[in-house]
Design brief:
The structure is a single chain. It contains 3 helices and 13 strands. The protein is an alpha+beta fold. Among the domains are: 82 residues, Mannose-Binding Protein A, Chain A; 43 residues, no CATH class. Strands 1, 2, 3, 4 and 5 form a 5-stranded mixed β-sheet that branches. A 3-stranded antiparallel β-sheet has the order 6-13-7, with no helix packed on it. The protein has a 3-stranded antiparallel β-sheet with strand order 9-8-12, with no helix packed on it. Strand 10 and strand 11 form a beta hairpin. The radius of gyration is 36 Å and the shape is elongated.
Length: 235
Amino acid sequence: MTIHYREEQDFLSDLLFKTHKIIENVWIGAKYTSNKIKWNDNSDSNFSNWAEGSPKNETGYDCIQMLPEGSSMGKWVNEPCRKNNLVVCQRMQIWSFSQMQKIVLNILSNPVPIGFIYVQLPSQPEPKTLWPMAQWKNISQQYAGHFFRVEGDKAASFGQPQSDSFQEHTHEYENGYEQTGGHHYYNYGDYYHVNTVGQRTKTCTSSVASGYGTPRTSDETRPKNYAIRVWKRTA
C-alpha cells in the first residue's frame, strides 16, 4: 500500500479505523532507511504523515506502520520489521475494453462539466448543437441589462460594476463660436454651454474649434455592444 497524497491518507484512515473499526497497527508499503522513506514500488516519497516523535533514527527501525486510535489515528511511526501487524494490500483496478469504451464515448459526447458556462456570441450556435448529449438552461436573464468588458486598461477590477459613460448633449459651433440661446462665446479649445441666466459653464476640454462638439461625462465613452446569450450546463 502506497500513500502519496493527503486525500489518500484520509481515505485509508477512515476506511480502516472508522468504517472497519480496526484497532491494531497496520503496516504500509514503505521502509525508512538512511533517513528517507522508500516505497516498495520505488515510487516517489513526496508525502509523509509522521506521528509526534517520529521517525526514530535508530538501527533496525526500518518498517513503517499506521496507528489506529485517538489523535494519532493514521499517523506513521517506524518500528522493527519483526513486529506482528496487519497488512493492507492494494491492487490496481483493471478496466475491461467495454468499460473503457463507455468512458471514452461519454467524455467525447460530454466534454464539459456540469455547471459549465457557455457564452453564445452572434452567429455562433447554441450549446445544444455543439454538445447534444448535455442539458442546457438559458440564464441570460440573470445578466440582462449589463455591459461586459475585458478587465484591464480603464476597465474596473474583475467582478466590480463600472458606471456608464454617455454623451450629455451636442453643441453647434460656427467659426469658433458657440451658437446656443443667442449667446456667443469664443472657443479656445474648451467646450462651454449657456445656462438659463446667460452664464457659461465649462463641460470638457477639446481641440475642436468649429463644427459639432460632443461633451462627455468622462475621458471615454463606452462603445456599443452586442447582446449575447449565456448558457449553463445543468445535467
